[in-house]
Amino acid sequence: MEESLFCYDYYRYYGGAERSLLKKLLLPLPVELQFLRAFRKAQYYRGKKWCQPLFWYWELKKRRLSSKTHIQIPTVAKVGKGLYINHFGRVIINSAAVLGNNITIGTGVTVGQTNRGKKKGAPVIADNVWIGTNAVVVGNVNIGTDVMIAPNAFVNIDVPPHSIVVGNPAKIISREGATDGYIENIVEI
Questions:
Q1: Does 188 map to a domain?
Q2: What tens digit of pLDDT does each residue of 151-181 get?
Q3: How many domains are there within the chain?
Q4: 95/75 Cα distance (integer angstroms)
Q5: Can you name the residues that pair with 114 across neighbouring β-strands?
Q6: Is 88 helix (H, G, I), strand (E, B) or coil?
Q7: 156: domain CATH number?
Q8: What is the mean pLDDT of the chain?
C-alpha cells in the first residue's frame, strides 16, 4: 500500500504530465521527492518479515537523504496521499503526528509533540492543509480540512475547517476556500 502512495506524491509534484524518457534519464527527481520515495518504500517493507533486507536498504537510503535534505519523517509516521514538500530544507515531523491527504509543507516547518500539560501529544492534520515556511504546529491539536497555516505561525490550538492561521499566538481567520490557489495537483480521494 505505502509503495503505491509514492505515485500520489509524484503526482503532486508533476501533475498529470508524464516525464519523457529523456527527462527521466537526464533530470533526476528532486531530492525532496527522492526522500519521499525512500520514506514510502521503507514504510511499505517495514514489518514484512520476508523482505527485511529491502526495508533496511530503503531505511538507510532515507536516512542518508535525510542528512542531505534535513527532512526528518520517521518511517512509523502516518502520512496520507499526496505529500508535497515545497522546498529543499529542514522539515521535522514527529512520529506520533498524523497527516492527511494533499498536505503541502514549506521549508523550516516543525510538526511536533508536547510532553506535558493539557495539550500533551502530537497534532492530527486533516486533508488539504498548506503549512507555510517556518510554521510550528505542536501538541495534541486537530487541524481541520482546507486550512492555511501562514509562515512563521505558532499553532498549539485546534483549528476549525476552512480557516487561515496567522501569528504567534495563533489567530484564526475563518475563510471558505482558504487554500484555493495554494495547493496544486490535488489528489482526489
A1: no
A2: 999 999 999 999 999 999 999 999 999 999 9
A3: 1
A4: 8
A5: 121
A6: coil
A7: 2.160.10.10
A8: 90
In the chain, the percentage of residues whose pLDDT exceeds 70 is 92
In a domain, 13, yes or no: yes
Contact 147, 178 (CB under 8 A): yes
3-state SS assignment for residue 137 = strand
Contacts of 180 (CB under 8 A, 6+ apart): none
Question: Rounded to 5 degrees, what are φ and ψ at 122?
Answer: -120, 160
Cell (9 digits) for 68? 542531505
pLDDT category of residue 18 using cuts at 50, 70 and 90 = low
Residue range(s) defining the domain that contains residue 101: 2-174
- What is residue 64's DSSP assignment? H
Examine residue 160 and state whether it is found in any structural domain, yes or no: yes
Distance, CA of 135 to CA of 131 (rounded, Å): 7
